[in-house]
Write a structure and sequence with these properties.
The complex is a heterodimer of chains A (115) and B (236).
Chain A (H helix, E strand, L loop, with lengths): L12 H26 L6 H7 L3 H29 L3 H28 L1
Helix pairs in contact in A: 1-3, 3-4
Chain B lengths: L3 E9 L9 E9 L6 H11 L18 E4 L2 E4 L12 E4 L6 E3 L2 E2 L2 H9 L19 H5 L18 H5 L6 H12 L7 H8 L13 H5 L6 H16 L1
Parallel strand pairs in B: 1-5
Antiparallel strand pairs in B: 1-2, 3-4, 3-5, 6-7
Helix pairs in contact in B: 2-5, 5-8
The chains are: A mainly alpha (115), B alpha+beta (236).
């Protein structure tokens, strides 16, 4: 096969917006989480798990983790695009990172709803 | 008036004679009329005429004498020689193949420039006189059309170093926006389609090296932001 440079995958805009939106979600959550943690009456397991007992906090925490993983996916893929030139290795790394992040998302859900 | 002497440390490489590049230490006596780095280089060329560099207009219009001056890309003809700490370290523009000494092969750079179709696309029959623009529409082209394609910006961009074959680079994207912003152009959609790609446009991570080095004080990062802005407005 003749090796020609091919570009024109016609994606990128969604990820670019996604990275910005998820950054805002993470920033808002960080502030909210900081305030909630500071307002805890005492630093004990009961108080800590009580903080996550509310539906809103659980939902917001899960949203934070999903944002983090999507944000990380775009960022890590960008790093691979820059530094890993062989396509086979890049694809393998993409798949590994994708499964890893999906696994983390499941794990985060499990932890949040077990607390 | 006392004689001014400048010390140079110059990247030398002649593929026909040298096995690998080396840095040459050389000093040159300047005349009082020598103001710019290019003047000093021309003196140096008299002293050692094997030193090679491109130059043409010597007034910042042609963009031929772009080089890496003390670690920062710039035009030799616009840089005051007295403002530079010595020894003045000169290297070819980073990231492009070296042909000889300070002369680089700009093929890849111009390939990217050509890929954005740097000309007006308008299939309507031309009017009797020129295609008119309002003063506001014309205003938008300021800061875009002045680019002299010296490649200072693209060769200071890490994204262009890693993917020069796929990333258009700041110079190409500035030119792309120059035609996207032009109300006389009718291929706006095709131009945006052409750039909507993880490599061609979205390799830019807004680190703004391009803005830092541009000898014409242009702002490719702002132009790239405006392209992204238009894509968002088109999609949302």
């Amino acid at each position: 096969m003749v090796k020609r440079i091919v570009v024109g995958a016609h994606y990128g805009l969604r990820d670019w917006i996604g990275q910005r939106v998820t950054a805002i979600v993470m920033a808002l959550y960080s502030v909210y989480f900081g305030i909630c943690a500071l307002m805890l009456p005492e630093m004990s397991y009961e108080a800590w798990s009580g903080m996550f007992a509310g539906g809103f906090m659980r939902f917001f925490s899960f949203l934070f983790f999903m944002s983090l993983f999507y944000h990380a996916w775009v960022g890590v893929r960008d790093i691979f695009m820059d530094y890993i030139q062989p396509v086979g290795i890049r694809l393998t790394l993409h798949v590994i990172v994708m499964f890893l992040l999906i696994g983390y998302a499941g794990w985060a859900a499990q932890i949040l709803w077990r607390l | 008036m006392s004689k001014r002497t400048v010390q140079f440390k110059i990247y030398r490489y002649d593929p026909d004679r040298d096995e690998k590049p080396y840095m040459q230490d050389i000093s040159v006596d300047l005349e009082p009329s020598d103001k710019k780095l290019l003047d000093a280089l021309v003196r140096l060329k008299v002293k050692d005429d094997s030193t090679s560099f491109r130059r043409s207009c010597r007034e910042g219009v042609c963009g031929s004498d772009a080089m890496n001056i003390n670690g920062k890309n710039g035009l030799a003809c616009l840089t005051d020689v007295d403002s530079l700490p010595q020894p003045i370290v000169l290297r070819p523009l980073p990231g492009l193949p070296v042909i000889r000494d300070l002369i680089v092969d700009m093929t890849q750079f111009f390939k990217q420039y050509n890929s954005i179709k740097p000309y007006l696309v308008n299939d309507n029959p031309p009017p009797e006189r020129e295609r008119l623009q309002s003063p506001e529409e014309r205003e938008e082209l300021n800061g875009l059309y002045e680019c002299i394609l010296c490649a200072c910006c693209s060769t200071s961009c890490p994204s262009f170093w890693w993917n020069p074959d796929k990333f258009v680079g700041p110079a190409g994207l500035l030119a792309a926006y120059r035609f996207i912003a032009d109300t006389r152009d009718e291929a706006t959609n095709e131009r945006l389609d052409n750039l909507e790609d993880p490599y061609r446009l979205f390799r830019c991570h807004t680190i703004m090296n391009c803005v830092d080095v541009c000898p014409k004080s242009l702002n490719p990062t702002r132009a790239i932001g405006k392209i992204k802005d238009m894509m968002v407005r088109r999609a949302v």
